[in-house]
Amino acid sequence: MSLIGAGTAPDAAPGTASPALGTAHRAPGTAHSGPGTARRAPSGGDTLAVEAAGLVKSFGSTQAVTGVDLAVARGSIYGLLGPNGAGKTTTVRILATLLAPDGGRARVLGHDVVTDAAAVRRRVALAGQFATVDDDLTGWENLVLLGRLAGLARRAAKARAAGLLTAFGLEKSAARQVNTFSGGMRRRLDLATSIVVRADLFFLDEPTTGLDPASRAQVWEIIRSIAADGATVLLTTQYLDEADELADRIAVIDHGQVIAEGTTGELKASVGSGTLRIRLADPAHRPDAGRMLTRSLDVTVHTEADPAVLTARIPARPSARSASEHVASAITELARADIAVGEFALGQPSLDEVFLTLTGYRTPGSQEAPS
Question: Which of 71, 91, 272, 355 stands 20 to 30 A from 134 (CA)?
Answer without folding.
Answer: 91
